[in-house]
Amino acid sequence: MTETVFTPATAERVQELSQNLSAVRERITRATAAAGREREPELIVVTKFFPASDVVALHGLGVQDVGENREQEAGPKALGAAANGAHPRWHFIGQLQSNKAARVLRFASEVHSVDRAGLVTALGKAAARRAEAEPGAEPAGIYLQVDLRGESSLSEDPNAPRGGARPEELAALADLVAGNDALCLRGLMAVAPLGEDPRPAFERLAALSERLRRDHPEARELSAGMSGDLEAAVAAGATRLRIGSDVLGRRQSLL
Fold first, then answer.
1. Three-state SS at 141
2. Which helix (H) or strand (E) segment is 203 a member of?
3. Calpha distance 84→96 (Å, rounded)
4. In the chain, where are the structural domains located?
């Protein structure tokens, strides 16, 4: 159920968020050093099922990037946060229906879950309309989501939701994004397959990213890594980490 009344986070909650955030940032720093990298990946804090008050508190603690999975929750939350002085960069990272593309671009600067041509087309049209209504608006950032499941996983349940494009589909999708002036191809996104070691999966993602950049050098970003596997993602070259529970705590559905 969507919030209707804004209640600021308590001092105890702000302290909890601050401590969790510090711990996650320390993990990122250690992982970056272990990988021999100089620049740390950027942190996107995923606030699914948590209130706008947490977004406001996190923004006050220096968080500039916030991720959401569900349009019906994210839209009102973004409005609530903005009404209380928090204007982070919003990233949409969940599965997205084409008919909701315009709604997502009302609040999101970047969409990390683009996995089919129809969605590229819908986002392109919505972004073009936004550019007409808001002269000077930045193109919508697009990440192509990749299905990293290996052949063994696919054979176990070939009809399971794939949550991403197959690697052989990426080139055509990238060309489609790059051909739309209202969109900007940022790079690739993926979730490590359940039940598999994330390290080889993220290594496959890094190889796909390198291949993509041969034709689209602007697609430099790699969105990978969550609370349980951020170290493996950093080692593979992730530039964006999507961390939720380790910052916000255990999720409880708003529904």
1. strand
2. helix 198-215
3. 27
4. 11-247
Q: Give the closest residue to 56 by CA, choosing from 80, 27, 89, 31.
A: 80
Taking the C-alpha atoms of residue 237 and residue 255, their distance in angstroms, rounded to an integer, is: 36
- Cα–Cα nearest to 112, from 253, 242, 247: 242
Residue with tokens 């041509």: 117
Q: How far apart are CA 151 and CA 182, in angstroms?
A: 36
- Quickly list H helices, 96-229: 101-104, 117-133, 151-156, 170-178, 198-215
Q: What's the sign of the alpha-carbon dihedral 86, 91, 94, 95?
A: positive
- Classify burial at 233, counting beta carbons within 10 Å of its beta carbon; exposed 0-12, middle 13-18, buried 19 or more: buried
Q: Which fold has domain 11-247?
A: TIM Barrel (3.20.20)
In angstroms, the CA 207 to CA 30 distance is 23
0.90 cut: is pTM over it? yes
pLDDT in tens, 29-84: 999 999 999 999 999 999 999 999 999 999 999 999 999 999 999 999 999 999 99
Contact at 8 Å (CB) between 120 and 87? no
The CA angle 107-45-72, to the nearest 5 degrees, is: 40
Closest by Cα among 47, 52, 56, 48 to 3: 52
d(CA 121, CA 106): 17
Cβ-contact 45, 63 below 8 angstroms:
yes
